[in-house]
Amino acid sequence: MKKAKNQILVIFGASGDLTKRKLIPALFELYEQGFLPDKFAVLGASRTLLSDEDFRKKASEFLPEGERSRLFNKMLFYQSVSPTIVKDFDKLKTRLEDIGVQQNIEANYIFYLSTPPSLYQIIPKYLSQTGLSKSDQFSRRLIVEKPFGTDLNTAKKLNINLLNYFDENQVYRIDHYLGKETVQNMLVTRFSNGIFEPLWNHNYIERVEITSAESLGVEGRGGYYDQSGAMRDMLQNHLLQLVGFVAMEPPVIIDANAIRNEILKVFQSLRPIPENKVAKYVIRGQYTESSLKGKPVLGYRDEPGVDKLSRTETFVALKFFIDNWRWAGVPFYIRTGKKLPTRVTEIVIHFKSVPHHLFDTKSGGNNQLIIRIQPDEGILVKFGMKTPGAGFKVQTVNMDFHYSDLADEHLPSSYERLLLDCMQGDATLYSRGDAVEEAWKFVQPILNAWQTNPEIPIYGYPAGTWGPEDSDKLVSNGKWRYPCKNLTDDGLYCKL
Question: Are strands 7-12 and 40-46 parallel, antiparallel or unpaired?
């Protein structure tokens, strides 16, 4: 893999948690793997008054001890910037020029907005006014963290605002789910294997199921989460992006625009769920108090910062269809929630049964292809085999691959992959503005129905269970898979 050209990464919100726990460690790993440009620097920017040495000292708390960390730390610099004061951006520009001269780095800049979304309206404007947003000679890119709006209208306004100051090809909307190795491998699994792609359609697939479960609750973020909920926090962005990768047509070439064009077509083909049908196709829930491993667990409404009468969903499951030739009539099922039995994200392809049942299938069920996103990343195939002994009893068995088996290969974190892609100008795994708006178009009627129709129920489910029992009723031709922490384990009860 060729290295990116020399550049400086500016992180707005550099004193925040994301920078310390995710971005700095990811950049260090890229340094360790030899992927950073030959000339590279990080300029942290936030309101907090820090010197370069203060910033380096804070960063070192999240790095291993040793000479390599000390060498990496020399790439880190800091500039105090108030994102609401335009004059501070003149200071930022001067500091960038000084670092460029000192470190012999050309004026290629990436601006990373690790800030509250309210500043997405301000920082791009001031970067533009200071002459930092565009250059005829050097590359300028902007990385934006989710949320990309809180509804369709705010998403459109955000896109308009960003495109006032940056071109679309300069804007990188980061979704860390798309940086996971198994998400990227889905393209390879589908389009490089003759045993999968010919079967990847309504003729052979009965249904598609996507689960993203979290065992944790709101963890002290009740005030924020109560304004968001599972639909906005997880489904509208992360999980619909996974749907795009599962359902897309083969791109003409492996190229950012070609791949993102196909994902956009999937979102444009999503069958709308009318507001008066939301209760039929969408189940929402809230976790209630329970006992896990002998310890009491608070219900959602008892969490600090949460309204005692809150109707914010901590769980959502829905059934929908994609109206195109490939997926005609195939139901897709998505569920996500907090305080579920385990932390897991996976995609399950349920293949249709054989047309004529010749054998006694002991364990029941059709063939399944399971793509595990996290944890225990890998792929699992379930198929029937004869049980030893007389007769022809059939039992479902597993054939699996785990990424951990590649002991000699470094498995990069999501932020490693995505930061490197942006440095190299590859937007394949970043969300495009038109796709973000299409995803919101699909979700918006559901949010409207929840807001305007109090008769749509919000079901309680005890913390530590797989959500409301009513979610099982969505799956008309089967039942949800119950995944465990380990890829090859499944069933109602996992070894947590």
Answer: parallel
